[in-house]
Amino acid sequence: MLGSRYAQRTAYSFDPAAEAAAATDAILHDTLHGERRGVVVDSPPGAGKSTLVVRAARELAAAGRPLMVVAQTNAQVDDLVLRLAEKDPRLPVGRLHSSEPGAFDPALAELPAVRTSAKAADLAGMDIVVSTAAKWAYTKVDEPWRHAIVDEAYQMRSDALLTVAGLFERALFVGDPGQLDPFSVVGADQWAGLSYDPSSSAVSTLLAHNPDLPQHRLPVSWRLPASAAPLVSAAFYPYTPFRSGTDHGDRRLAFGVPSDGSGVDRVLDEAAESGWGLLELPARHTPRTDPEAVRAVALVVGRLLARGGAATSEHSPDPAPLTAARIAVGTAHRDQAAAVRTALAELGVTEVAVDTANRLQGREFDVTVVLHPLSGRPDATAFHLETGRLCVLASRHRHACIVVCRAGVADLLDEHPSTEPVQLGVTVKFPDGWEANHAVLAHLSEHRVPWRP
Amino acid sequence: MSLIETLARMEAVATGRAAPLATVRHRHLSEQPLVFVPLTTAGEAGAPLGALVGTDREKPALLAVPQPRNRDLRFAFLAELAESLLPYVDGFADVVEWEERKETDPETGKKVPVQVELCADAPQLIVPSAAGIDFVRLLGRSMRFRRTAEQEPEAPYPAPPHVPLLGRWFTHFGERARVPGASLLLSMTGLLTRHWATGQSLLEDQHLGALLAWIDPPARHPTSTPRRQRSAPALQGVSGRAAAERAESARDADGRLLCPPAGPATDPAFDNRLLAPAMARFDAGVPGAEDEIHGLIESQLRPTWDAVWHGIDLLRGLPPGARVADRWKRDRWSYTAHRDRVRAGEPPQPRRDDAVTAAQKLASRETAQAQLDAQEALDDPLVMAGRRLAGEALEGTVTAVEMAFSEGRRPMPRPLVTLRTADRTPLPERAKLYRALPDGKTQTAEFVAYAAEEPGALVVRLTGGMGRGRTPEPGSVPEPDDAVCWTLFEHAPRGGPELPDPEDTPWTHGGPPGATGAPEDTPDTATAEDFL
Question: Hey, is the C-beta of A199 within 8 angstroms of any chain B C-beta?
């Protein structure tokens, strides 16, 4: 089944830049001139979502329509403000923040046209005011904003939208439907199937009540290389396929130091060559912070740096050195991330981003090293099978993704089919995590390097 | 499952006895709880078969339906249930104390203190298992929309008096039971699994008899034959595992389970062999058939009734946690608020929550969960040990305190405390830490660094809880050799932001309830009428 989807490859000529521009133009047209109160944009990983948000915000501001921007985390808000200021240093942007110390990136204080405040009243008159949904929820306005942009709307919960929706008249909702769904630590089954289930995503509530809103999607991933886009598209976005903006050969990863023949070095070479690598440890049931797997992850990162990696891409003709800041390690649990950080510190490696899938959402790196969520587990729970978790981990890279995993995950999957109850009135999400996991695993097995620590 | 619970379960498997998960009782247990053991009819949703109800363990009231498919008998049962339950529920309504609360004055719009009633105590219902809680909800849903002859004299088939009222209370208890840590309606299996870990699966723990067998196995099986008794274990009593197996499967000469399911589902063998023939005799009008059915149903209920009280005895053996009363007070508020709604003549709870109510409930339950997790850890060193093992807290001994001050116009004390710990808690940079002070307040601190020269030693900077002065209040700064426990989680997490009023529900959520075009209440075209 996956093979047939791969077979759709370039039968016709495809100009990624033109396709993406056409999609963006249609979105901006609906946003600026549409009659409807909302516009929804689905964006696959790295498809220029932030670029779109920045552009839409600037065009609305230029048209004399001040707007509020809602993002989900402080990091996302700071990033947006920096991007806005980079595009137009004189654009008046307000950064609404919490009153806690260190609530925003100190770099914002350097920007001349950016004003920061914990009170919305201080930011009155700014063209654009950006904040998190949590902060906006405590804000009261006399007159609602005429426009809003809601970023990462698929990661926003329906009840969070409920608290801020009264602040604006119309909004552009942008997000990635394939990433992690919002969740609740307490049961919310009692509302399953209701159109406004507070634990569902903001977009599903919005569309349930406003089914005829214009919906767009961005067709090209600029981040994912040609080696990754077909797999991620087929495994996680089967009905809304996308393409990579670059072709095979546009990007190259090479090492200055030749392989020492070890398993770790061989998986690096495999990943540099093909974009994917699977370092497979012997099958074993382990605690979450599997010491051997954690050490293997740290070794892979250590060798990536020690071998003097260099990445060539469409950004520049000269190879750029692969530095620690361009590498990320992704895990399923926080204690795993903490264990990897400790192991890296022992190797003297710092500055590598080590975090859980939730926190890596929306970020981009040259190379990612992933500790497989099911590695060493005796069972496959709904948490570990969640489609979005694997999708985030497998779609953060521009060049290559190396997965470290215990053998036997395919058997584990077969022993644990999804058993989530089917709820009436809830749209079944495709693909389910079980199928997506199998699809990714099948692809990874072609790039497998067995290794015994 | 947390690591410490997994360890406790492994310990239970190894020893054959349940292992404690708590050193104190984390739920309020009323002086006088009402135990409710319901049974339902197989294959008939919402058709009660019988129940034992009461506050006196020696004298439960037996209610039984000789033919559950007969709607009149079913209503007679519900009326009897209301008669035996409502006096208990109402019995707490009139003993009140006064509390001060801030309310918005409708004229000035300012928050002004007002005196409001708070019931001094509240009813507590205990059912055997989680399925019993669901059954309470189901009964509540099926009763609260009924109309009595008094309410609607013209309507045919009026409900007996009090039945709708019991439905509203059951619905309230059922909703309250979804709030983490709430204790108006509790299941005995839920209570026991919170405090003990057995060597069986979570699903098997729903069998009350088996669960009790792990926690408190009988000294010896009363009916076991000498052949089965081995000499050595017989002296120490049987193992929990063996007792649990016996609780699940042992039957008497009539084929009845010695320990019938804790309900509301019945044992199919009992249904087929004993209950069905007795009901057939009742339908045929055989004299004495009704008494026979009563006896049969009591035989299925009584062991569970005794088991629930056995569980209550075990739980009373644990001292209550220090913050349990605080949570019970919220239950009392909840009870008082519903009492007021009933007294004000408000209509029954709607079939479905509107968007704002649903969001409100979810937010308050998430806050309650966070508070419960924090309070249980602070009340109980064993729970805190689990959090330490999970990397969410650390305990250590203070080795040095160095006074320091914040910069700025008004320097405030920011002492640096060095502690030595054996906990391997990963601390992110500038991690915020919390510590309970002896007076119940919380002290905040910030992780500074690991001490370079000494492994296991780290430095934190105290950032609060020392009063407003330039010198910290006495006792607010730890001293060398003090044992301190810092947590990475907040001790009194705040609730979320205010939600709009239901009539201000925004367009993204379908607008105000009742507005046209709302997709939720499209009529069901297939069913002529839908009373549930």
Answer: yes
Gap from B510 CA to chain A (nearest CA, Å)? 5
Last residue of a domain, one of A220, A241, A267: A220
Instruction: List the domain range (segments joined by +) for residue B17.
Output: 3-94+125-349
- Chain A nearest-CA distance from B520, in A, is 7
Per-residue pLDDT of chain B (532 residues; tens, 9 = 90+): 788 999 999 999 999 999 999 999 999 999 999 999 999 998 888 899 999 999 999 999 999 999 999 988 999 999 999 999 999 999 999 999 998 888 877 788 788 888 899 999 999 999 999 999 999 999 999 999 988 888 888 888 888 889 999 999 999 999 999 999 999 999 999 999 999 999 999 989 999 999 999 999 887 655 444 444 444 443 355 788 889 989 888 888 888 888 888 879 999 999 999 999 999 999 999 999 999 999 999 999 999 999 999 999 999 999 999 999 999 999 999 999 999 999 998 999 998 899 999 999 999 999 999 999 999 999 999 999 999 998 899 999 999 999 998 888 888 899 999 999 998 888 888 889 999 998 888 999 999 988 877 888 999 999 988 888 888 888 889 999 999 999 999 998 888 888 998 888 999 998 888 755 444 455 555 555 555 4
Residue B131 in any domain: the answer is: yes
CA distance B247 to chain A (A): 29
Place of tokens 């274990």: B233
CB crowding B410-431: b at 16 or more within 10 Å, else e: eebbbbbbbbebeeebbbeeee
Sheet holding A316-321, edge to edge: A252-255, A309-313, A316-321
Pair B356, B345 in one domain: no
B112 part of a folded domain: no
- The ipTM assigned to this model is 0.88
Cis previous bond, B502, omega within 30: no
Contacts of A202 in chain B (CB under 8 A): 508
Residue A5 lies in a domain: no
Smallest Cβ–Cβ distance between B391 and the set A158, A210, A335 belongs to: A335
Check CB contact of B359 with chain A, cutoff 8 Å. Answer: yes
Q: Searching chain B, which residue's CA lies closest to the CA of residue A188?
A: B362
Indicate if A265 and A212 belong to the same structural domain: no
Q: Which residues pair with A345 in a beta bridge?
A: none
Whether residues A192 and A301 share a domain: the answer is no
- The backbone torsions φ and ψ at residue B114, rounded to the nearest 5 degrees and listed phi first, read -130, 155
Whether A272 and A203 share a structural domain: no
**B506 close contact with A: CB closer than 8 A:** yes
CATH assignment of the domain containing A413? 3.40.50.300
Q: At what angle do helices A74-87 and A49-62 cross, to 10 degrees?
A: 60
3-state secondary structure of A412: helix
Do the beta carbons of residue A285 and residue A377 sit within 8 Å? yes
B477, two tokens: 């700064």
* Contacts with B, A 142-161, CB within 8 Å: 158-159, 161
Question: Rounded to the nearest 5 degrees, what angle is found at the Cα of B428, between the Cα atoms of B423 and B431?
Answer: 90
